Amino acid sequence: MACHAESFTPQEMLIVAGSRQLEDEKVVFAGTGLPMVSITLAQLTHAPGIIPVFEAGAVGSSLIRGLPLSVGDSRTTCKADYLQGLNAAFELTQRGFIDYGFIGGAEIDPYGNLNSTMIGDFPVGYRKPGVRLPGSGGAGDMACSCTQTLIIMAHEPRRFRRRLSYYTSMGYFDGSPDARKKAGLQGKGPYRVITTKALMGFDEETKYMKILATMPGETVESVQEATGFELMVDPDAYEYEPPLKEEIRLIHEAIDTQGYFVKREMKQ
Amino acid sequence: MYWTGLSPDEARESLANKDKSKKDKRMTLSKAVRSFVSDGANIGIGGFVNSRQPLALVHEIIRQGRKDLTLSFQSAGLAPELLAGAMALFPDRLHIRRLEFAYFAHEYAGISPMFRYLAENGMVAVEDWSNYNMSARFKAGAMGLPFLPVRSPLGSDIMKSNRSRTMECPFTGRTIGLIPASHPNVALIHVQEADMYGNCRIKGQTFTCPEIAMASQHTVITCEKLVEHEVVTAAPARTSIPFFAVDAVVEVPFGAFPAMCHDCYYFGQGHIAMLRQAAEEFRKGNKAGLESYYDKFILSAKDFDDYIGRIPYKELNLARQMESRSLELQKFVESC
Q: Is residue B207 part of a domain?
């Protein structure tokens, strides 16, 4: 009998949904932050056979020393099967060993393209951007070369934009058929977008973002309102299952015990 | 096409003329920086984000002052952040002309305020790449090749921001990316162990350190611990960087602090937060905190040992204890 949490934050829901999207026994290339929390949660619940890959060089680790604060952290190397460096990790990606790339982004468009480079006018404003973001890191590579990509991010209108200032990590380009293949990419592209308000996928034909489920307490309307472009809605859209008590407990007591990535909120 | 460090032909020529003998390369931090880091240099920065950042060398560069630098790295935080902060505070002492990189921030600890400050004010030329691009650029340099073909990030604006090319692959007919080799003038790399000749033993992930060392004209190594040469020859397959790629070896315990160093110490989280806070204040217009950080920890310090001497012992020890291997012990340490 599933025992659901009585109260939870949107961020906790996001992490749980990220975890539930991960299939057991798949190879998952982990981006920094929330993907690391979701992967660890999945390892501790339904998917003990997940094989995480960290871009700084660790493969197959169990995060038994606690949550890494960086994908290059020594904690990513615990119980690793294979330990090299960045070239080796990205060569695995390019060769096709990675089932899922799990990444975040500052901005996303309807075709799952992500911006993590700059806010401003590219290319004219590249030398003096309005806001300079940290840059691609490995996300641009993961989005191109992992077999599929999972995207996890907060759902806010300013993050969901029809046009991006800069295209860092490529999804389905403009949605035109075979756009990825024509560009020379091998991975299939984004599979799911997991947010604080919804679980989304992409229309098979148009590659346009589509609501598959709304998070508890949200509606199609409230999700649409928080999105800077119009979303498609799957005819079978449903309400997503809330977190289990056990999932919330694991996040705070076994994974992010110090609250580096997951905020603790006072329960009402 | 232009080359921001050495061109492939210059890199080859420089190695042909280099003394590759197995000699004692131990020296002081100050002499290593004076000898191998010059104005106008393209500097390859080892480590990854805030792991094994070559901070002892960065402090010394700031103390000595350098101009017209190009910084090349895949992902880094504290090393370029300290150089960027020095440039913002003391433009006559330190000047960065150009960044070739994939990611400049601190992951869990947030964005790099000094990078934002320089970039958003147009004070530095930036060239964005992906992590694999930068790693593969160093690898091309290490392989003695002028470029490598890559599959990512094709079709992105990253490819429009840099010197990469795309072409039709002559064998498959599909689109492929080409990225130019990077041959920095000098690589700055912090490792756990090295011998007096420069043979390095990296523990944990190698990141892109071996490739950067092999691609660069000169390599300066700082190490947590100098080891006997026999330690190296007893297990030569453990050598990550061979002696003839190395020009200087400096023993600097805690040489990456407050960055982490695998098996030696974890992040100095309190120190990183303090520095980041001061940098964020600077970005918002309040210079005093960052000025006093540089004065206290870098400029008035005689050398890196002196800086480490100014870090409270309990901070250093906490970082050392946190790097221990078991979660149980870590929980115990955190609860104290």
A: yes
What is the domain range of residue B241? 8-16+23-146+181-256
Domains and CATH numbers, chain A: 10-255 (3.40.1080.10)
Catalytic residue among A6, A23, A25, A55: A55
**Mind listing the pLDDT tens digit for each residue in B164-213?**
999 999 999 999 999 999 999 999 999 999 999 999 999 999 999 999 99
Determine whether B38 is exposed, middle or buried from the number of CB atoms within 10 Å of its CB (0-12, 13-18, 19+).
middle
Give the closest of B103, B174, B266 to A184, CB-based: B174
Predicted complex ipTM: 0.96
Residues 74-103 of A with CB under 8 A from B: 74, 76-78, 83-87, 90, 93-94
Helix (H, G, I), strand (E, B) or coil at B306: helix
Element (H, E) at A235: strand A232-239
CATH number at residue B29: 3.40.1080.10
How near does any CA of chain B get to the CA of A163, in Å? Answer: 13
Tokens read off for A207: 């590659």
Q: Is the pTM of this model over 0.90?
A: yes
pLDDT of res. A66: 80
Number of domains in chain B: 1
Closest CA to B129 of B166, B96, B97, B154: B154
Task: Examine residue B101 and state whether it is found in any structural domain, yes or no.
Answer: yes
